[in-house]
Amino acid sequence: MTERLCLVHYHEIGLKGKNRSTFENQLVTNLQRALKAYPVREVHRISGYLVVEAKDGQATDELRDAIRRVPGVARVSVAYKCGLDEGEYIEAAKRALAEAGDFQTFKVHARRSSTTYERHTLEMNQLVGAALCEAFPAKKVDVHTPDVTVIVHVVQGMTFVYADSVPGVGGLPVGTAGKVVTLLSSGIDSPVATWMVGRRGATCVPVHFSGRPMTSDTSEWLCQDIVDTLAPAGMVGRLYVVPFGERQREISLCVPQSLRIIMYRRVMYQVAARVAQIEGAKALVTGESLGQVASQTLDNIAAVNEAVTIPILRPLIGSDKLEIIHRAEEIGTYDISTQTAPDCCTLFMPRRPETHARMREVLAAWDSFDHEAMVDDLVAHIEYRDFHQCPSYHAPKQLRAFHAELAPAEFADAGGEQ
Ligand code: ATP
Ligand code: MG
User: What are the structural domains of the chain?
Assistant: First the structure.
């Protein structure tokens, strides 16, 4: 039986000039990891594609669908792999067209990456086209806007034949854009924000603030489920969890009620910035969207931003809630995010949160508690869980040493390093 394999198309990577091979190699590595559960013989590069070969030589639609979810993949085709014998590739073209679903018109597009093959592409088009017209008498050729295009591509002593391709998630391979720390709640927005920067090639290190011990740890489990759901995209290697309930209670007792959320957020951002320092990450990422809730006005964003110097990326800032929900459904996190879980943000909420915080008042409230000691303490008690789905994630070697440096007094109690 003619072998079937998956051809992976990537366009943006092609734009990266000298970096091209770095990007391609990263995509090969990421695909190998993402497809671990599938019987894959090999993932390799060939003439502008990546090729994924199944162990039994029969790539399936399930394999194709797993490939589509990996950032950097623009399109995937399940192709027949033939030799240079024209009878063989004509037969494959007939099968490919027969599997193309509903269509009225088609054309053949022959390509040749190997110049040693004697037939010209025009000749190949005519040859294969004539055979298809004979096999499909009810269908018409349309060379301008065909419903289906049958590709016959001669590459390094082989011919790939396919008629169909499905879109991938696009973007760039994870691991080609550096590391970011994402603030991950178990809500709808931040998993989408994490996925979006991951799709642009960033290795994501989420930090979740839990209400523990004042709440249950449900939100932590939901965050783990979210990371597991993002596994096929290979973006996350480690999830940090910060038990924040006790400290929130302290803050709620000493700052004006209307400024509580801003104070919680400033502490969260500072802890996340410390994690970024430990991890060598270059930016924080949040799921904020302008004006979506009271805490997301420009004044409040500025009041929180002021607490850190590291850049903060907000990939959803201009998105509407419905767009975000749609994306959450696509990436599979929506059903997890809509389960109710008390997290730190539902704890000690003010009745009337400030919507236009004034910086002078924010700074006065900020100085009314020992925020430095609090951040040190939270960093010293941070917990984490590793996931083995992200080849580009490299854990910091000296988390314990960093703990010691950042929060000396608490070092003895610090969470373990592997
Ligand atoms: P989300 O659905 O992501 O929780 P939201 O619309 O509920 O967003 P907020 O609760 O105002 O918005 O949170 C704004 C952003 O702050 C979140 O998108 C997330 O990046 C961060 N954040 C909020 N709560 C937490 C948390 N418990 N742990 C970590 N980050 C958080
Ligand atoms: Mg939230």
Answer: 3-167 (3.30.2130.30), 179-412 (3.40.50.620)
